[in-house]
Design brief:
The protein is mainly alpha-helical. It is built from five helices and no strands. Helix 2 runs antiparallel to helix 5 and helix 3 runs antiparallel to helix 4. It is elongated, with a radius of gyration of 21 Å.
Amino acid sequence: MDVIEMARELGKAIQQDGRYKDYMRAKEANDNNQELQELIGEFNLKRMNLNKEMSSSEKNEERLKAADEELKAVYAKIMGNDDMIMFNTAQNELEQLISDVNQIITMCANGEDPDTCEIQHGCSGSCSTCGGCH
């Protein structure tokens, strides 16, 4: 088996991992949550409104402040939604798994022993062994 075939097998293993499955369930729940989707649509409209106010040649500070506060209020509702909370948790856990896998691959590509290289969480200050920020 060559390296690319092994990477495909790793991809299959990741898709069988509980963290991936949790992420996909949470993503589907978000996609099917009508209230959440409406809030996201509202957020996008308010963001466009804020951008329009910011790029206006006749800036009105009161309108800018109001648009910003409205945007932040909708964002808080989105982030407080139970499905979004579950999604963010699942996404963070999946991203940590991918980061750990990338870190191992990077360390091995730099000559470390695949059986003993240690995954490091947090920043060690050395970018050479970093699997990426999370």
